[in-house]
Amino acid sequence: MSGGKKFAFGGIGAVVIVIISLFMGGDPTQILEQLQQQSEVSTSNEPYESSEVEDKLINFADVVLASTEDVWGNVFQADLRRDYPKLRLAVYNGAVETAGCGVGKSSFGPFYCPADQRIYLDLSFNEELQQKYGAKGEFALAYVIAHEVGHHIQHVLGLLDKTNAMRAKLDERAYNKISVMTELQADFYAGVWAHYAGQYSDVELNYDDILSGMQAAAAVGDDHLQEQAYGRSNPESFTHGTSEQRAYWFKKGYDTGDINAGNTFADPSLQ
User: Fold this and answer.
1) Can you tell me the distance from the alpha carbon of 99 to that of 114, in angstroms, rounded to the nearest whole number?
2) pTM for the full predicted model
3) Where does the sequence pass through the membrane (predicted)?
4) Are 104 and 95 in contact (CB under 8 A)?
5) Residue 158: alpha-carbon gap to chain centroid
6) Separation CA 116–CA 127 (nearest Å)
7) How many other CB atoms are found less than 10 A from the CB of residue 127?
8) First to last CA, the chain
9) Which of 38, 155, 193, 219 has a C-alpha 20 to 30 A away from that of 145?
10) Model confidence pLDDT, tens digit, residues 20-31
């Protein structure tokens, strides 16, 4: 992104941190910077030895990522008449250095860094996704990966450059709306992937898988996360969308399979 530091997109854990700071009257930017400084202390260059369970998750994540590449490769050629630039998946433990998005920490949740076009995934998040957020089943993790791939698509199409530039021009409340639209579009793209997964890749999905995807989307809605943390929600602080909105846009992507039907920025209900 032009003229400054690139931002990572996604990050469910970071959303919770920002929510807490807003309720407590703090500066979320300052809090995130403090967390990043803490992460820098714990970042290690030592090779990480994964467990057997983690190895299975890594293999599963690789299968999902390969499926997204097959699907989006076909969709880009059919609808956009261009090649789909592949991205990479980086698995880490605790904290990780990125090329242009600062230090990522497991508490941030999975995130996409446009600077190096990678998805960063701490495998402990899969357990957190199930136990803390109530999103169970393998497809919950598949949805998360597909959502982050959605941010990659936004980057490739130039959208993230535009939304990032708005940070300096809009106040926090106004930019939160832009952030919600950005995240919901990534949910939509995750649904488009699910629509074509069986057609363009070796991943076969059924109704229960799609239901799991919708439940995963709902589990990480801003209203649900805020109510879990404080027993109430503050719509003005939403940055990712409500549970209902996230599930709706994922399902719309799945139902239509049309990359052009996901213009969340033109939805009057999100203005």
Assistant:
1) 9
2) 0.82
3) 7-26
4) yes
5) 17
6) 27
7) 11
8) 25
9) 38
10) 333 333 333 443
Give the rounded distance of the alpha carbon of 169 from its chain centre: 24
Instruction: Using alpha carbons, list the distances in angstroms from residue 271 to 175, 176, 181, 202.
Output: 11, 11, 9, 39
Region of residue 54 (phi > 0: left; psi between -120 and 50: alpha; otherwise: beta): alpha
Torsion of Cα atoms, 1 then 125 then 212 then 159, to 10°: 0
- What is the pLDDT confidence band of residue 35, given thresholds at 50, 70 and 90? very low
Please give the biggest Cα pair distance in the chain.
49
53: buried, middle or exposed (CB in 10 Å: 19+, 13-18, 0-12)?
exposed
Write the pLDDT tens digit of every residue in 41-70: 334 445 556 778 778 888 999 999 999 999
Please tell me the total number of residues recorded for the chain in this structure: 271
d(CA 256, CA 132): 31
Q: Which tens digits make up the pLDDT trace of 142-193?
A: 998 999 999 999 999 999 999 989 988 999 999 999 999 999 999 999 999 9
